Amino acid sequence: MKSRAAWLGAGLAALVVGTTACQDQDRSRQDTAEKNTPGQRVEQAQLQSEKAFDDARDAQKEASSQQREAARAQEDVQQKQQELQEAQAKAQKEAQEAQASQQQAQARTQQAQSVAQQAQASALAAQRQAQQNFATQQQQASNESAAANQRIADPGAQQQQAANPDAATQQAAIAQNSQPTQAQAAPAQEQQITGDVLSASAQEVLVSQRGEPRLRLKVGPSTQVQVDGRAASAADIQEGAQVRASYRTDESSGQPQALRIDATSRAQPAAPAPAESGESSPGVPR
Q1: Which of 255, 232, 249 minimizes the C-alpha distance to 183?
Q2: Which of 23, 48, 245, 275 has the fewest CB atoms in 10 Å of its CB?
Q3: Which pTM does this prediction carry?
Q4: Please, what is the Cα angle at 203 between 206 and 125, to 5 degrees?
Q5: What Rg value do the Cα atoms of the chain yield, rounded?
Q6: CA 219, CA 236: separation in Å to the nearest integer?
């Protein structure tokens, strides 16, 4: 409204200036007309009047044009203000959405950390249980191996057990009652095992009995290894060789550590002696 009033004021000022100029020209013409005839004076007055109307009309057109430009400028200002308000509202909405997304991400991160901690705790518990089960299995295997070695070392006891079943039952009961004591002392005692080699490397030897994996012996720098009576390394032991090993169960890891390994390469069976000699080969009944 102020711009419109300013433009109107400018138009009126221009009209006044034009009117003043016209008046000055009229005076000049009047002075000239006094010297002219009455007809000439009337004609000049008409011309002056028409020119004044033309000037006023031009001034009015200029004022109207300026007024229209002022109106368009006002509309542009209003449109820019509306666009600014819309941009501010959009920016505020995006900021709120970003804050909500950040809160959701933090919540998901905390949930993932909680799940990871629970999974880690479960894994540690399972690992401890597996170690306990492995130690128990190793101890049982050691006890069974010790019992088997004792039976192999004392064949007379087997014959006595076959001849006297009651005595064998009593010995079994005594052995069963003594198992807790042996289990407690086993980690600190040296034990032995005899069997065949399933696999061998510089770090470990897998010993089997009757074709079944029995014991996995860990080989260290202090382990004494002999193959066919000669010093060697565990990697020199061939698959299928017969071994007699002494070991001790490590208290910290629960794994059997080999102390000494004596291996004998698998040999071809000896040919039987002639029948007329009257003697039988060793190990063959006559």
Answers
A1: 249
A2: 275
A3: 0.32
A4: 80
A5: 60
A6: 13
Distance CA 183, CA 139 (A): 7
What is the rounded distance in angstroms from the CA atom of residue 277 to the CA atom of residue 246?
A: 41
Q: Name residues whose C-beta falls within 8 Å of residue 279's C-beta, 6 or more positions apart in sequence.
A: 273, 286
Quick one: average pLDDT of 157-174?
A: 50
Q: Where are the alpha helices (DSSP H) in the chain?
A: 2-33, 38-153, 155-163, 165-185
200 DSSP β-pair partners = 205
Spatial distance between the Cα atoms of 64 and 286, rounded to a whole number of angstroms:
145
How far apart (Å, rounded) are the C-alpha atoms in residues 152 and 161? Answer: 13
| Cα–Cα distance, 56 to 59 (Å, whole number) | 5
Residue the block writes with tokens 């260290």: 220
> Would you say domain 190-264 falls under CATH 1.10.3210.10?
no
Sorted by where each begins, the domain ranges of the chain are: 41-144, 190-264
Q: 3 vs 10, 64, 78, 80, 83, CA distance in Å?
A: 10, 12, 14, 18, 23
